[in-house]
Batch of 4 targets.
Target 1
Amino acid sequence: MNNLLFPGQGARAVLSKDLLYHLSADRALEVLCPDLHRREALWKELSAPAADPAEITLRQEILQDFLKDPLLLSDLSDLLERFCALRASHEQQRREEARAAGKGNEANAKQLLESTALTLKRCLLFLQAMGEILEKASPVSRGLTALRERMRALTTPTAFAELVQLCATLESFPARGFVDQSFCLNDEGQICGAFLVSHRDLQITDPTLITKKGWFRRREEPTAGPTGCLDVTAFFRPNSTREALLATPLWDLAKQLSGYAQALFEEFCPYQSTLTFYEGALDYCRCLTEKGVSFCFPSVNETATEFCELRDLFLLSRARNGGEVIPYRLSAAKDTQIAVFGANGSGKTVFLRAVGTAQLLFQAGLPIPAREATMTVRSGLFSQFSEAEKELADAEKTGRFEQEAREIAEMLEALAPGALVLLNETFQTTAYGEGAQGLLPILRYFASHGIGYLLVSHLRDLEEPLAREGVAILHTAKGYQLQRIP
Amino acid sequence: MTLFGLLKLGECRLLPRVAEDLLPKKLFDETVAEILLSPCDAEEILARQALLAAFLEPKRQEALRTALQALLELERAHAKLCRAEQPLERFFLHARLLRAYLKACRALQTLGDCGPRGQRLAKEITAQAELETVEEILSSMEKELAPLQRFSLSVVDKVWLTADAPKTYAQRFGEAADALGLPTPAPRELGLPLTAELSQGVLQLHPHQGAALERLREACPTLDIPALTQLIPQFRFCFAICDLVEKARARNIPHCFPVLSSTPRFTAEGLYDISLLATDCPRIVPNDLYFTPGERFFFLTGANGGGKTSYLRAVGVNLLLLLAGCPVFARHAVGYPFSALLTHFPSDERFSSQGRLDEEKARVKELLSHGEEQTLVLLNETFSGADEATGCDLAIQTAKRIQERGWFGLFVTHFHRVREEDFLLLNTETGENHARTFRILRDFGLRSSFANTILKKYGLDEAALQRRG
């Protein structure tokens, strides 16, 4: 999807393989965006979120315009759906054109030209309608404004009306109408070009018409007429050469018009899938609103992340209203590392999930379920969640601890500075003392390479060394709250 | 028009067999082989060396290739005009021919700095080609042809042909699309022939232009196109040699223009068998060459696969190149314009009625009857089809006949008894652990004394003194 509403060319954040699964984003979206196509469009973007702040803010602005004016989105979407259907029938036409090309049949060529001219005209009128919708809506986002400008540049000049008019002229050839063609010769005296012309532009008068003069009727002998024309009917009889000669300009013009239509389809059809994404986003926002959940578009902050009343998306999807889900507050510098300790079932994983999901939503250009927030853009999002032992593991690589070690090793290969790592009870699959000993150097490696992490753990042996090294230590408290330990 | 041309082409004096034995088709096509089989005199060799030196200069190559392309275009234009049937088509093709003629002549005029031959050609073109007249006629023809290039057909009940050529729908769509930034593909080139009726019809619409074109055609001087197009194979030959030099250069094989000697000799340092460029031979080993007035004939013996045939070919191919005025592939070389080169390489065993030995004897006899005063003969395992005693005797007899005539020769053989005779010897070098080095070295033999070898080298041995008379 590369267009004015969705540049898509900027940097992408790298995600670890199972991140979306670990965050239960799939289960949350099933509820928050029930429509399959729209959900797929959201999923696609969540699977490869942007890492370019400009792209993120562009999408946020467009979504805000659509939130203010949902009718704008639905009108554009309907129009583009029909535009894409026109493209499908045009493709069919091109296949037939390819099959019939070169068969030299004038009648087929006329028919193809008529239908291509009609397709191009409809194409142009669709775009005119799209421009009118955007003019009426008066969007403020840069993306929609740019699209509106593009439509103006295309549909306002007189050339647009001329193009529509020319297409209308060729939409139907009267059965006994003129088919006039102009030819040019190359430097070898061969026909190098054959083109259709308008009969109105050719000056031809049949010089053999009978004229009355006084008492006498005089028949003029056939000669060249007033503009130098010659009656060649006698030696230009219908045959395969004549068919080929007369059909060629019609085929070529049809191909030219088809090329214009194709260029317009290629430019504007991608907007359909872009709008499907925004429709999915609107469904998600609508769902949050229905649940009474505040959501916001976090502003980009290079250096720090702050949430106010951030809620976990998965729990929200399951709750009847937002009040049932505990909100979190967090304020941390970009390269802050955080470790959360606490009793079982005290909300540590929920916190981890809430932060991870918020980061993903933000970088996909979507609002997050928080009252307000500023966030940094991450180069990558990685997760390691303690899991069941994988089936079908290699005989030499069995055991959950080894599985986790392999996952961390793979993660290290893909990590770059500016990434965020979410670790949920990592290395608790071995003796806790050993697990802590093994995990500490890895955490130090993250810290020394500009990689932020959020660790949820029962490995208490880590608490003291991490605190000494400046890692923010949080403990869960009553009511699923989190407290910072000084 | 009389043009001397780039190369003075003589008769094909060498036997076609020489090309089969020495010139692989992958490297030397028929045109090139034919020219290589026509040895030149000293004057022609020097002229060609100057010409080819110019061809090999990168900054001149573009002008030379332009000249060749222009000549090819002239050839095509001429052929098309000869085939043209319609009068209108003929007018257009005539103009095209004149255009091609002017382009070719102007390209040839730029060869003034390509040695004496290039200078001569450039002067001849300037003097004989009547370029100004042709240019004037062409300009007038183009003016008369312009209105004939567009016409229109209007088809309803009747079909009208008119000279009117209004703006086309394609142009109108194109202009509107351009204004909106929509790309318009270039129209396709049709190349459909004009029918006789349409051709006649267009001329009927433009009677004045038709008459004017006819007058111009008659006024046009007769152009001697074959005189120019005959230069094409000559250009191709020169470029083929340039390509060969490039191929050799890519394998770090040097080339040089041999110094011409007034006395019969052919010596070289680091001579390469470039026919191996046609194979995937990974390494081509150079060797020295020793033919002097006092040392005219050698037997070459040695291990199988030691490089004997390759050495023989190196001598033959490079001599052909020398005699054609081309660079040879060596660090340095001195050569005499021999009048003939004869070769005898093994052929397939398909003897009609005679056995192999009889056929070989007949071939050798016939070969020796072709030689001229200054001839170099290359024999590759001749008489190897016979038993050793007979074969060796025949080899020695043949060698003596060659020596009596004062010819130069190199005879590759496995008959080691020849080493006991009083002939000059070359042998393949064997390295450590009997590895083949592909080097060919002088072999002074067991029976040959050092003193005699030196006397022979300077033409002071008895046989050489006798030949002096």
Target 2
Amino acid sequence: MTVAATPGLEYQAERARSRRGFLLGLPAVIYLLVFFVIPLGIVVAYSFATRTRTGRTELTDWNIDAYGRLGESVVRAVAFRSLWIAAVSTIICLVLAYPLAYFISTRRPVTRNLLLVGVMIPFWSNFLIRTYAWRVLLDSDGIFTQVVSGLGLGDGRILFTSKAVILGLVYGYLPFMVLPLYASIERIDWSLVEGARDLYASGWTAFRRVVWPLSRPGVVAGSILVFVPSFGAYVTPAILGGNKKGLMGSYIVDQFMDARNGPLGASLSVVVLAVMLVGTLVYFRQGGRNL
Amino acid sequence: MTKGVAHSTAEPMGLSRWLLRGHSAVVYAFFYAPIFVLAFYSFNSSQIVGKWSGFSLRWYGDFLENENIQESIWISVKVCIASTLISVVLGTLAALSIERFRWWGQKAFDAVLYLPIIIPDVTMAVMMMVFFGEAAELFNAIPGVDLTQGVEKLVLSHVAFNISFVSVVVRARLANLDATMEEAAADLYANGWQTFRHVTLPLIMPGVLGGALLAITLSLDDVVVSSFVSAVGATPVSVYVFGMLRKGVSPLINAVSVVILAASMALVVASLVLERVTSSQKGK
């Protein structure tokens, strides 16, 4: 960098550069303003608007009635059921993914890459079709149903129940748990574990006191990546949960499509958005930028 | 950071070692078994999915003859190409602007740029639907614009989420490159465009292509946003299939699914190969 002769010139050059940067970003700024920020603003406005008798949403008589309805037992039941299903799915994903991520991280590089590709392929494959695959398995004469019932493991007919939805969510979002867990376990400095073992820690103690705390960012990141989309899930419940409108995603869709209650649907969307924002803030707090 | 794992400490011993291996094998089976079963039954000659009655390509034949599906695939391809091109250009510019420059309001833009990535599908879908409902008249007043057409709405909403994904991927690439090459070009009297064309763009190309692949995948995969904004006569294949499979299982959907799955896996493999080529170029 050349040294500017006068501070004034340097300042002007800096200004010009900053203006160039702004102009480069401008098309995207305008696009997102029109097609993202304004739509978001309209949804927020809807949540404070009035529903007319015919089901139209009028942007007049601002009120917080829609948010008041969140306390109603029907809406609360939907919210809690969604929270519960999302939480159970997240825990199952964590239990399945942690040992797998640990296993992958401790392989030799060539094997490790192959195993990772094995996780990447479902991660990138069409989500809708992967969910539909379970619809085939869970059908009354599907393989899953027959195997489970045949082995006497209980009733295999779980299609159109919460169990099927949880199964579908776990199947759909498991790669989202494995990848961040892998990222954080892989970078653990194993000499720390060696040190613990040298100090007579048992394998289990070394894991609990060294490996687990060091992999925490991955646990938090993975949990959020599974929990947030599970909470607002629409496709999985629609395919595996039948037509029951008991979950947040489908309940919101229902408000706009059938019930024609724009303000309620909008206020629920804002709530889902808030859940997601809180989750993301926690994610960044944990320094979990590493997917 | 030690890359070479000391296996004696990292790998548990005895029984737990075998439990770990067994568990991993089961999880991989869980990942792939459903897909194989789906593919297997798509070659079933029977009308009933669960009853195997011999090998047949009949459902793939039906798929090729089904004009509605063909048409919806064309819609998807059109939307995918248009939205990918637009979002790659806008997303790359946004990435350059944030990563290489400092300007007033940048922090706010950076934050907004993250939102489409983390926003739940349903919220995004509601936003786009309500927006087109309220703003369609305003847009249609502009000559040459007709937002009653589904394809335009699909492209506009896919770009709205894809810009962010493209810019994240390009930024990751830019962050790993230091700016000295670009400064050197500027010192050699290259103007802004020449520097970009001959230095920056070739260097970030892998990131741009990676972003494009991501945009293609997301556009083709999207069901929720698309089903909220698609109009009659402009149903993308994901929405069409979603509508079909909500009605139940059929061997025809299995065949369609296998084709879609094969296409999306081909994209994954392409992106992984691309990544390999890139990382070997970096000489890492």
Target 3
Amino acid sequence: MQSIKAQFISLWRAWFRDPIRPFGVVSVLLLLALAVAPAKDHFSEWHSYQKQYLRLILDRGDAVTLQRHFRGGIQQIWLPDLGVVDRCQTCHTGLAEASLADVSTQPFRRHPPIPHKLDEFGCVVCHRGQGAATTVAEAHHSALAREEPILPARYIESSCGQCHHAPMAGTPRLNEGRELLARYGCVRCHTIRLPDGSMMAATDDPPPLTHIADKTTREWVYAWLKDPASYASSATMPNFQLSDADARDISAFLMATSTPQPGDTLAVPASSKAPDPAAGASLYGESFCASCHATQNAAGNLVGGNIGPELTRIGSKVKPEWLQAWLKDPRNYDAHTQMPHYRWTDQELTALAGYVANKTDSDFLANVHLDAPTPQQIAHGKALVTEYGCAVCHEIRGVAKPENFAPELSRIGSKPLAQLVFTAGMPKTLPDYVDGKIRHPRAFGAGLRMPLYTFTAQQVDALTTALLSLTDRSFALPSRLQIAAQPMTTYQPAGHAGKLMAELNCFACHRINGRGGDMAPDLTWEGSAVQRPWLDDFLKNPNTLRPALIRRMPRFNLSNSERAEVTDYFMTVYQTADFDRDSMPLGGYSAALVEQGRQLFYSKYSCQSCHMVNTQQDKGYIGPPLTQVGSRLNAAWIYHWLKNPQALRPGTIEPNQSMSDEDAGALTAFLMMQKTSGKPGAKQ
Amino acid sequence: MKRLLWIPGAMALVIAAGCARQPVAAPAAQATAFGSAIVESSGGKQLGAPGAALPQPLVVQVNDAQGNAVTGAFVIFSGSGGVRFEPTESLTDSSGQLTTNVMLGGTSGRYELRAASTDKSGKPFTLSITELALGYQEQVGYAVDQNYCARCHDQESSAERVSNYDNLAVKPHAFTDGQTQDALSDADLTAIIGHGGPALNHSALMPPYGATLSRAEVQALIAYIRLISDPPWRAAGVVYAKR
């Protein structure tokens, strides 16, 4: 000990013989300590990026402008009401420089044009990550608790969905994902609560199973349960990956719990000769069944609409007596079905049912052989139905509908990584977790019940995008930023006509007063648009307008009195308050005015590019043919339509030509002269 | 002391085991045949999204000098801007083709990809493929195009959307027509979209959309047209003298 002390003292004397020396050394140390901060600043990551940026712009033509825009040091956007402290622009120096469009090296790339201003929303609202960080690792890749990394570009649309709850043209994946969440009934098990307090609603239509034995066989139920996609490639029912025994027991229970309902079946008339298959096929075509129902063609592609179920193998599913009764009146079996009530004659019914029932697949049920069920099997089936939550979607006698069957997903987009269980080998990020859960729901642990869906890679991306939009931030953002989706109204037409319209399910295709589909024209102001005789005639034979469309209005075979009732209702109720439909005459325009209109039609406005008036010379086929428009539409409607089409039917693609009153008047006169010859509606 | 002699032995064992676990680089697939040209079978010029897989896989085919498909030729894909391929390299299949899934990089714009192979003498030959990633603005433009413009400007006719192209006396230009686009400034395009064909002394069959589309929609449409232009659009721009 002594020797160490002696050594130290001798060293001290050797170095600091002069007492002033310690003072000098301490001063130098202090200077060095003071230099640490500026040095750290100078050698920081962001400083080197700023120097790189200055070198990058030095050689450009507009270097002076860019240099003037450049501001060195830490740059920060602070938006207290959004919870944003973003220093991203410290390194991303050229975000707002339009002239850097050709620069592709990060972090100097210009931000692509979007409708929002950078200093109003900042960066992390859309891109996530840690805005306050000033190193790449911390800002982009942080996985600490309560922090989140940058959102991968493929899911960027999810950020739009934090505020925008309605579909937008610029976010196709988000729109698709939300539609899938509703159409595949994800939200039936997983509650999704939106920031405005509303719930995301399902749009699928799972049929009640209370009297399923009237409709189909146990063998079909078994095969369907085993793999719905093998019956219909477009099935929205997922695959529960049931064992043979489980599928056997569930099918036994469903058949046992089914109670026959009067009117579910109708004896197939034993006619002397088999129905003509060609008649059934042509009736299937004439009734435009394919507008809603798809079938697989020879190449394996689905052709037809997706409003109703796929009919490729329907003959292997339904019982002929049920089909007969269903086609006669679908609402007897399922009061909420989308299927319209066609008024077919008994003969037509038999022909159509025969044609539809012929769509069979002999392989589908070939290997299904089920013995009569035992009571134990039925009881086990009931337990399985309860366990798998079948009653969440389907009405099943004896099984109550469970509430909150699966975890709520209202904030899944902000779920902390610490709460997630990953499978071996998968990247440990939230998007990968969501993606994996959709692709392999049962891989995340034993005893999971989520079924398997057959989504394409694009659909999985879309779903993940939609789910990642459900963030804590979307609840925390000020409500002035929330743009709610326009919910469908609950408009219900009144009286007997309203009941008829419900039976025909006009709303499946047409929208009226904010309710209904968008496959066919909005009919909110149809009474102002059309002339009564035309509408009556059209309902009798809808082939008169746009005969070449694939999806179009079917003929419902309404009786004369039913037709008159619907027509009267339309003409009386669906009128716009903006103008009086009778304010302009239906005919009697001067020849000079008509000629002026003709010239405007063919030269100044070149309407023939989209419409036909003269079938010999005009070819335009975007808008409806106008050969008989004078017998179809009211003059006042044509006039106001020409002045501003979007005011009468929002979203119509006919451009607003900012037409003068005079031009619109002349064109109206010309168009009103295009009348039907010798048919109803001609005598005006 | 002697008791601890096992330690170096055990360490050597651990090191040996650790080294054995080192991933051995998979040997590059050995080409069994050689072609002389790569052609694109399908999957070029797709519209994708930044960071996402293209809707359709990219399929290329290796041909020999006679134009016959070559099985077992080695093809390697490459691309800039963070493009990923799955697989990046492999041998052509029995029909001479190689299919790869393409994940575009994280930014919107034009992606130039390359598929390369070598002939017998080891001389490389390549194929260039262009893929497009639509950003927000181009996506809006695409939607506008699909709703309003494509009905006449797109010659492709399908049962779902019949093209009006054949019905028009004056044929509209395809939006991919690069030569035509180079001659039109953004202001020209804005004028012809907003005021119709007559604005630039063109046919009145092109109607005016200025009162129907918003300014942002017109800008988005132009951005989209510029992106899909083939050959790539060259902005006239300001030309600076070289330093």
Target 4
Amino acid sequence: MRGWDQHEGHAVALPIENIDTDQLIPARFMSTPRSEGYGRFLLHDLREGAQDFPLDRHPEASVLVARRNFGSGSSREAAVYALVDAGFRVVIAPSFGDIFAGNAVNNGLLPAALPEDMVDQMIRSLGDGAAPVRVDLEAGLIRMGGAEHRFDLDPTWGLKLRNGWDDIDLTAQHSDAIAQFAERRATRFPWAWPGAKRSV
Amino acid sequence: MIAPQTLLDKLWKAHEIRRDAEGVSLLWVDRHLVHEGSHHAFARLKERGQRVYAPELTFAVVDHYAPTRNRDTIAAPDIRRMIDTLDGNAQTHGLEIFGLRDPRQGIVHVVGPEQGLTLPGLLINCGDSHTSTHGAFGALGFGIGATQVAHVLATQTIPQRKPRAMRITIDGRLAPGVSAKDVALGWIARLGTSGATGHAIEYAGSAVRALSMEGRMTLCNLSIEGGARFGMVAPDETTFAYLKGRPYAPGGAAWDAAVDDWRGLVTDAEARFDREVRLDAAEIAPTVTWGTAPDQALPIDGTVPDPAGLPDAEAAKVRAALDYMGLAPGRPIAGTPVDQVFLGSCTNARIEDLRAAAAVLAGRQAKVPGLVSPGSMIVRKQAEDEGLDRIFIEAGLDWVASGCSLCVGMNGDLVAPGKRCASSTNRNFRGRQGRGARTHLMSPVMVAAAAVTGTLCDARPLLKDRAA
């Protein structure tokens, strides 16, 4: 995964609350290998029935603005794959599902939390259209239509997004500490290892 | 003197290998449960040329795609491939697998506790948001995404920032016919689907102490529907009695040593929580959802909201939900006709759930079709030994094999577009049970009552003079 500091693109509004992961990608698509691309599954059922869906009107959009509790629901990382494969780099919302937000960061997608009134303001100003937006990760700023908004982001997530770090590589640096911990735990709490399997 | 600690503090500290400058902990993982959906993570491990770090702590369960009928001839190639891939990955990495033909197969969050893989004091990860279920034993159980599953496979650790501590105290006695499901839907309706985001919930109070392990698992299972990744209950005699003699639980002297350690897994008297919520058990009624998010729930004697009296943003949300659900505003929810019922899922398909539903169904006929999928094949066998299968079958419901089935709609079991299903599951999201499907969440007795009357209704009159 490549890191990024700045992103310039177009924002589009999807003014819906609780866009859960089942809507982001319906379950029936999830047996598809990632190599085939997940972009076409993004919000599939919501889009198919709707005329003039915001994402279809502005296929160039790379920043999505939505209402609270975006990405609630299941742990399916496929919801993030669908957004990323459809070209999104940033989702702006007042709040995110905890598991979704972590998954997003692990795939280079920024979950930018902004106060609800600011999100409302953005949604109003975007309306049905798309507008240029600039996101600065280090400064924690989103610039859109002459306004500047500061977003909240876990500092570790900021570092990961900017550097494109893979946690497995970071954790590998602590392999000795892990091995020592496991040994101590096995000695002090032997019950924490699965007991000998007996008949059911 | 050590500052008073919450159960969360104690569990966190026991698993913390290190904490970085930004405050993120690297935690040891005691059990890692994988399922068919973990294929992305195994693929990643393969790309990196890595092996599973601790195969003896990693267990594979076929559940998300498990067919509930005709297991010998899986017609859908996608489903076949998903199950074969898990089999292959388990074999490659030397993992124990509870496969499709294993008599212990079932839903991962039912199998773990049932086998004694889930124990107090453990940290348990699984690539599934309902991993919070395992917290019912006084464990740290939380769901993770595919990248994190790959991380746990490769390192047996998980980087995680400690959540804020929240306690939901439920005192008093639940009325007959009211269960843990109603408690959960009740608090989620009150606080909202993001009401507990960023928090780990400890459930406490006399009503929680009085719950069986099955009830506690239901309660912890639904934590994520209120936004909390973690739910937990301090272990007690009920916990120990459930676990003793389970296949993977410690035995002999190791059992006694374990129980000694587990008794310390309680929140200290003076410990502070970031947030406290109190509920009166006596005020909780049988609850059903009317909308497309789990917080859109109301007591069965309630009326569906009317957008007319609401502020604009709220009105739009309610209108969209009513439109999808095909419900008229301002009408009583009771009496709404259903097309089918589903009794199953990691939320409510344990033996106690089946017994409760059977108490309503015994000697009665279902007016609508329905599926009963036990939480595991062991639960299924136990139910058959108790004659519960006969009750379901004689009522006209289908008694099928175990899996996630109609809770997630991956295995071929689906609700048709526009059809309404009374369901003991955990998510009433749009399209969750199938495209255009309308899901109403409720407890097992309420599902059974909906089957008997063909409508959403209060189960309590149907339980009169019957033990549930």
